[in-house]
Structures are given as structure tokens and as C-alpha cells.
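Run log, item B.
One chain of 320 residues. Sequence copied directly from the ordering sheet:
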Amino acid sequence: MTKKKNRVVGLIGIVSRMANWNADFSGNPKTTSNGQIFGSDKALKYSIKRLWEEQGKKVLYIRSYKLGGGKGESEKIQPRDLAERYEYLFGEAVSKSSPEVLNRLFQCVDVMNFGATFAVKEQNIGLTGPVQIGQGFNKYEESNIEVQDILSPFRNSNEKSEDKDATSIGKKITADECHYIYPFSVNPNCYDGFVGLPGMEGFEGYSEEAYEAFKEGALIGATILNTNSKSGAENAFSLFISFKYGVPAYLPNLDPYVKVYKQEGMTVYDLSAIIPILRDVQAYIEKIELYVNPYATKVQLDYPGIETLNIFTRQEVALV
């Protein structure tokens, strides 16, 4: 594998129409204490990990199931624990050798990108991942929460209920339209401290292949995740700002500089406020890539040298 050397920062925009991109435990779209809707980094990472799993890549931190548990539960389905998931992926129990376990962990694309907290009986390993994703705040001010009553085809199984002879009623909670803007950064040097350790001679650190896998997930992960609550959520745009190798360039999270509004039936993502920031570090920038859904989205970022691509076809499009 080829080691990745240069830093990247950017944005991932997720649109959610009559869907629930990230619910809290009450079933409502997740909100801050002042009522602002947001999506956690875990929601975005989950969509990316699901994509990787469908592609046949090794993913450690995702739910999977087994049959059998404790005594008398041989036919009961239950989630695997972390050690069981490791054994399922690699066909062996967790070793007492840390280099051996690290070599296995770095074969997992989610660990290579997002890091890991691997605390099991034989090991206690913490890895800060090269890819860090912030919280995705909803930037659309006209969002409303919708509650739908759903009639079940089955009666209430609670014999003490007054409605025990009637079919039960549930609820589906969605938001009519939200636009979640996630900031991210990629620091390819995070794993350099493991390079050259005894027992890890073949490890070279964070790889270009791992970065390309993250990039693919940042472009289509939400669109492909078509569950009941996520149907209607999709990738709207992604911005990748790649720096030259070795330059001292560090940017703040870019999501506070984004505005979202409607114009002639299209969603406008106004990124104009980041232009002064780009100008200040222009000498350090290698390239800027902007992927958009040109059929429903306009992105305002009038800055020279941006490569603008269709998020679906990866063909060049004109920035409007």
C-alpha cells in the first residue's frame, strides 16, 4: 500500500427530506439543548461503514449477530461482542501479542480511518484515527418535525392494556427537510508512531487506499444507506481541500461559514465565506475538489482552480 502524506480538510453535506437522519432515544431528530437539529459524527460514520461492508471490506466496528449465548440460549440471536467480532473477521482469538493484534486491526478499513478503542480481556489499545469528523449541524432554518401515526396489523400483546383487543398504533417521526453540514480533517501522520515497531515491519502508516475508501464513503455513503428512516437522506455535496506535503497549513472547521437557502426550487449551499480563508493559505494548497448533485443543488464558491465534479458520475460540471 502507498502511504498518504498530505493533509486534507473539507465538508460533507447531507440532505434529508421526510427522513430521520439521526434520531435520539425518543425517536425525534437529534437536537442540542437550544433546539438546533444536528447529526452526530457516528451517524455519518455508520453510513460509510455500511458502504464498506457491502463492498466486502473488513469493518470491525459494526453490528453483527450470532446464535447462542448463555445456558439454555443456544437458539437465541444476539449481537457479537468486540472480541467475538474480531474472531469472526480474522478466524482467531485475540492474541496476547500487541503487534499481532495491531496488524490485524490495521487491516480493517474503519480502524485505518477512524481509529479504535479496543478494550478486551487480552488487550487495551486506543488508536486516534487520521480522519476526524465533527458534528453535522442543520443549516436550513425552515426545518419542521413531522409525526405520523402508523397502524400495526397486530393487536396489543399487553393483556393488561385497555386496547388489548385492538391493533396497536405506532409513530414515525421525520423532519420535512434538513441540511446537515459536517466538517472533517485528515491527518495522515496519526499512525506514524507505529511504523517500524518490532513485529510491525510491513506497516507504513495511513495509506492512500484507506483515504480513497473514506472519500468514496463521503460521496455516496448516505445515498446508499436506504433504510426506513434514512430513505430520503442522501449526499448533496463534498468539498476536499488537499494541502501540499509538509506545509504548515491548518484550518478551522469550515461548517460555521456555510449558509443554506432555497432559490428557484434549488437548494443553495453558500460557501462564499470560506474564500478569505482559502486565499490566506493558497500557497499551501495542492488542489480543491468539489463534488455536487447538479440536479438539485447549487454551490456558491467562486474561487479559481476548483475542480467541480458530478457527485454521481464524477464528470466535470460547471459551478453555478
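Observations after the first pass:
- The longest strand covers residues 167-186.
- The chain has a mean pLDDT of 92.
Flagged for discussion on Thursday.
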